[in-house]
Amino acid sequence: MPKKILVIPDSFKDSISSKDFCSVAKSSILKINPSTVVDCIPMGDGGEGSLESFKMIKDYTFKSTIVKSPLGKDIEARYCINRKTKTGIIELAEASGMQLVPKKLRNPLKTTSYGTGQLIKKVISDGMKKIILFIGGSATNDVGIGILDALGFTFYDSNNNQLNANVKNLDKIKKIENCPNYDVINKIDFVIACDVTNPLTGPKGATYYFGKQKGATELIMEFLEKKILHFSKAVVSITSKNYINNKGAGAAGGIGFIAFSFLNATFEEGFPLLSKILDLEKKIKHGNYDWIITGEGCIDKQTINGKLIWHLGAMGLNASIPIIAFAGKINDNLSARKLPGITIAKQITPNNMKLNTAIKNASKNLDISIKKEMTSLLI
Question: 33 and 94 share a domain?
Fold first, then answer.
């Protein structure tokens, strides 16, 4: 009987997508043993790659539209809809993702979530009644003010002067006027999905916890935190709702907070939601596969806080299927012994390789690592 393997990875930030991982893994495995049955499910836990999973689900139609990138350039962004259930799926990373901003240009004072707002507007115009918005992997820290701007909300200072929707004006906003079609938006069932449960402000909030990876210096983070503190208090006053410390309020630079406050959104963790939609428990059952291969860019302390590998470990353990995890880097001495359900955890990057080189060579390093680990198992 041929061996059966399920490949179900997350993306490697700034490097290879979950779809690319699947392609490399399948090619590597079949070179070792062409008779192996390899099933692939590109995944995301609420960030980049989440949209790709919906290609596996019947009745979802993929579409694209032109939106503004985080830096204000016109780009093409994908989304998908299910006309039967009137559900639209948006991946924030398509319009406002980190991968759209070159490292040297990353600066949360200059990026906007406007393009994601344009995607929401387009999905609404397609007649959808429910929108699931996967918000991981953002390049922005604008508390979603760009989204509201794209939807038609307007902002005013204490003298009733209209303000431009940017982070520098956050502390000047005293009044927010609903968009002209707010009655339509208010009837949409919004679900915010990601693996980030952080509050909006504070040391574990949007700015201080995630700002550095988006290009913020200590001074920029201090500047942004003050602006956001002022803005969040104004929003609480305007809406009479306080979501500052809610689970997920700090996700995507505060987009969670604005979605709760103005779109009446509910929050769901990304992987459990995708797992339910994809019916993964049915796929990952005892006897269905000999091994599961997974991976993500970095295995670190965040992994054990509910990222994809952590969830898959639990599922593999329950189904008695060994799981092999490949990562660009493994931090915090997180060997497989500290990851329940993970049989093997391997870093694909040689210890002496520089980060930029590792990112460029991720596909090659993954191929080498998979062949090294799987050859003895498949021959």
Answer: no
